[in-house]
Structures are given as structure tokens and as C-alpha cells.
Write a structure and sequence with these properties.
single chain; about 220 residues; alpha/beta; Rossmann fold; two-stranded antiparallel ribbon; about 25% strand
Length: about 220
Amino acid sequence: MKPLILGYSPWSSPDDCHPFNNVFNECVSLQDIQVGECDAIVLWGGTDINPKYYGQAPHTLTYHHEHSTRDKLEWMWLHSALLQDVPIIGVCRGAQLICAGVGGTLFQHVTGHQSTHAIETKDGKVYQSSSAHHQMLNLLNLPKDTYEVLAWSKNNRSKQYEDANGVVVVPDDFKEPEIVLFPKAKALAVQGHPEWQDLHDPFNQYVLELVQQLVGKEVAV
């Protein structure tokens, strides 16, 4: 059986690609392999994305780099994967990059997401997810048939949601997205940090099940 290869962005990633190395046989830096040779790619967490990638000016609290090599390379790898139908896993910043790449935007500043908290899945299960971000996926302007929110904050944690123009008004039934599937893009956006949690943590087991479904192959978890 052909080994499953995960191409990973070399920024802010553990050497062994934990926990995804329990799904894939090999983890190879995207600087050393072509996206089309991978069974999936993973984009990790880190500094904020330059808002120009989703058509906005920066918020005063957006910590981006104007001429970021990382932004340029990850944007290229993301779109290469989209064009070649290579599954994409995004963690924190990587989840936000996926959202921007498929036409969404970001809330450029939110509060209350700097510590572990409960998330609820569409199946009614509750997990404890690590959390360390001040930005968040904004799906409000995306067609509803292009994404599925698989998990959300059990209780909304932010006092308000802001972009460069100020406070964004959200619907009364708004739920803070934590894990989002973009089926047409074959992309899984995970706002939390599975790399910080133990393999056998229930949250990680849930995420790995979703990754297995994304890849569409029988693998041992």
C-alpha cells in the first residue's frame, strides 16, 4: 500500500507533525515536495495573515508583516492544493488562511479565546479545545452551501467582533466557528491547536477522525 504523505508548512510546526503523524506515514516540508505529490497538506498556526489577502485594511491590533514570505508561500501552496484537489488541513492561522482562500474574511479582533474552552459539535458532543487566537473565521458572506460548521464555542466568548471598520454586527443566532469543513475545497479548518494536546485527548481523536474522512482513505488512528 502506498504510504500517505502529509506536506506541511515549515513555520510553527512540530518536527513530527503531531498528531497528524498518526494518520499519515510520512510528513515532508512543503519546501521539499510538490503539493501534487502529497495526500494532504497542513498549514499551521502563527502570526496574523496580511488582511490584503481577504480584501481588507488592517485593524489596529492585527499583527501582520507587510511583505511576509510566509504569507506568499502558504497562499501559493493553498491555491495549488485547491487546483489539484489535494485535501487541506488548517490549524489556527492555517484555518483562517483557508477561509480567506475560499472567499471568506476574518474578524480581525475578538476576545475570550486565549485559553482552553468547551466546544460543541453538530452531533451534540462537547470537547475541551486549546485556544490562542484573537482573530476568527468570518463566514457570514460565504454561500451556505460552501461550508459546514462542525463545531462551535459552546458559549460565545468574545465581547464583540471587529474588522478594520469597527464592530461587525452578527446575527442573533451567531455561533463562533471552531471547526469548519469546506467540502468543495476539500479543506478542514481547525481553530484550536491539536498539536498542543495529547494524542488520546478526546478533542484530538475527534479531529483525527475528521482528517481521516477528509483524506478518504482507511488509516489506523
